[in-house]
């Protein structure tokens, strides 16, 4: 399995890292598990931003996975190029999460655009 495909797995796991931060920061208790969405909606500050980062991570992950799979199927790009793009995407997602938690809104948006650009790059290098 290629590094890029492993990065797809990592991308699908990152939202769970975010919700872990949200629940830990919100002092999650087992009894809150009866209605976890209500609990997450009640969060404020950094835990609330971690929850928002989780939602955004769920939104971008399928786009990234599709890009990696299409690039592999097209077979026109060098494998090392796909692997580098994938690692850069995961790096951008980690930076995005950090920016979200730190409440660096403008930098977070810039990092988000970089991540989307990296996803689009899979399609461009595969032509």
UniProtKB/TrEMBL annotation:
It comes from Pseudomonas thivervalensis. PANTHER family: BLR7753 PROTEIN, INNER MEMBRANE PROTEIN. It comes from the Bacteria. Keywords: Membrane, Transmembrane, Transmembrane helix. InterPro entries: MAPEG-like_dom_sf, Membr-assoc_MAPEG. One of its GO terms (cellular component) is membrane. It holds the Pfam family MAPEG. Its main location: membrane. This is MAPEG superfamily protein. It is found in: Membrane. The keyword Transmembrane helix applies. The chain crosses the membrane at residues 63-90, 97-125.
């Amino acid at each position: 399995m290629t590094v890029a495909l492993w990065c797809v797995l990592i991308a699908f796991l990152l939202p769970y890292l975010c919700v872990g931060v949200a629940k830990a920061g919100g002092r999650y208790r087992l009894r809150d598990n009866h209605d976890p969405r209500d609990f997450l909606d009640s969060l404020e500050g950094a835990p609330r931003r971690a929850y928002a980062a989780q939602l955004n991570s769920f939104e971008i992950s399928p786009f990234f996975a599709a890009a990696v799979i299409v690039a592999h199927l097209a077979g026109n790009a060098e494998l090392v190029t796909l692997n580098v793009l994938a690692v850069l995407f995961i790096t951008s997602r980690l930076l995005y999460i950090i920016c979200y938690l730190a409440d660096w809104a403008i930098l977070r948006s810039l990092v988000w655009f970089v991540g989307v650009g990296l996803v689009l790059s899979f399609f461009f290098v595969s032509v």
